[in-house]
Amino acid sequence: MQPSSELPAITSPDGTLYDPDMYPAGHRPAHGRHALADTEPGIPAPVLDAAAGVRKAMLVPVVTALAIGTIFVAVYLAAFHAPSARHQPLGIAASDTVAARTELALNSAAPDAYTFHRYADADAARRAIVHDEVPAALVGDAHGMRLLAAGAQGPSVVSSLASAATEAGGPPGPVRDVRPLAAGEARGRWSVCASVGVGLAGFLFAVSSYQIAPRLALSARAASMLLFAAASGVTVALIAHSGFGALPAPFLTVAVVVGLLAWATAAATGVLLRLFGPIGMPVASVLLLILGNATSGGILPATFLPGWLVPLADLLAPAAAIQALRDAAYFDNAHLTGSLSALVAWVVGCLALQYLLDRVAARREANAPSMASMAAVAAH
User: What is residue 115's DSSP assignment?
Assistant: First the structure.
């Protein structure tokens, strides 16, 4: 019987042509009834044959989703339920006697919470803050102790350091914000939204790309990633820079940083899918979305994270992107070059690994016929 005109002819594993109209509704072969309910008429037999059994189809999604959800809750509770500073940089501009007394008071209240940087005067401390050497500095003079801080570091950081200043020398004067957040970013959460949104988009891009074309040539896949990254960068820059005025950084800088983050996330997800197959999807979601955003510094800087999370803040791409955006917007590009280099390294490294994996697979595939021939000769 000829195959239906609406579907291409599909050969089943036994070599016969499969006709979706061969069986009346409700009378599909046994493998179709067990592996996949016939709610979608006309599914080819090879697809049904490859489908998971009922038990696996029911349990695997439950286990995967539950594991990811559990990891998400555990990581975020561990990181943010009761954050405390660990070697948080803090400037002090005061006489040696006042500075020593202040350091002793802070160390007694919270050992190992702060790393102190001394400055000659208030102007030197202010310069250190605006160049992102320290997020805040205590300044002591004849009028007492006051706090200079960069509001662009985030409200949580400033409030924690203001509390430390109170513990160190009694109630300080009003906090002077020497690097306030932009009017469109009153709570300092824009970078978090951008990181989460772009990271999720990069993850979904890679998953859909591999689902649609799992054997797409690397050159074509890289070109697709570049197009996605460029579109993501321009779109986010238009929304944040031109639409809401949420980030006072140059439009081109925002577009480049966001585009590199999108590309890095997509490339890393692709490599994990290539390495681990179906398991690569939950691995990528945990590493890039959960751990990446928890350690990005968008909510709290790495100095407030548990020790086991701190190394990831120096390695994962979201932290480099958020650092780059903040530096470009508020801190005179203090660490912009290093952050951009880290993002580029992610992109190049993932593409290089993908290339090596493709070469190994191609070599293995090319050697497969010769190995089969040798086995056949040996059998005879």
Answer: E
Cβ neighbors of 343 (< 8 A, separation 6 or more) are 257, 260, 261, 264, 317, 320, 321, 324
User: Bridge-partner residues for 146, per DSSP?
Assistant: 139
**Nearest-angstrom CA–CA distance, 175 and 150:** 10
- Residue 250, Cβ density class (10 Å: 0-12 exposed, 13-18 middle, ≥19 buried): middle
Give the up-direction half-sphere exposure of residue 124: CA atoms within 13 A in the CB hemisphere: 9
DSSP, residue by residue, 288-323: IIIIHHHTSSSSS-GGGS-TTTHHHHHHSHHHHHHH
Distance CA 27, CA 48 (A): 14
The two beta strands, 144-149 and 136-141, are antiparallel
Tell me how far apart the alpha carbons of residues 139 and 155 are, in angstroms, rounded to a whole number.
20
CB-based contact 164:90 (threshold 8 Å): yes
Q: Give me the half-sphere count of Cα atoms (radius 13 Å) on the Cβ side of residue 18.
A: 19
Helix (H) / strand (E) containing 11: strand 10-11
Evaluate if residue 272 carries a pLDDT over 50. Answer: yes
Say if CB 79 and CB 296 are below 8 A apart: no
Is the four-CA dihedral 278, 47, 41, 215 of positive or negative sign?
A: positive
Name the residue type at position 13. P
More confident site: 12 or 149? 149
Share of the chain above pLDDT 70, in %: 80
The closest of 207, 343, 339 to 277, measured between CA atoms, is 207
Task: Label the pairing between strands 10-11 and 17-18.
Answer: antiparallel
What does the block give as tokens for 109? 């209240």
Strand partners, 145: 140
> Tokens 């979201």, residue?
318
Query: What does the alpha-carbon distance between residue 246 and residue 271 come to, in Å, rounded to a whole number?
Result: 33
- Helix, strand, coil in percent for the chain, rounding step 5: 65, 10, 30
Instruction: State residue 319 phi and psi, 5-degree precision.
Output: -65, -40
* pLDDT of the residue at 268: 97
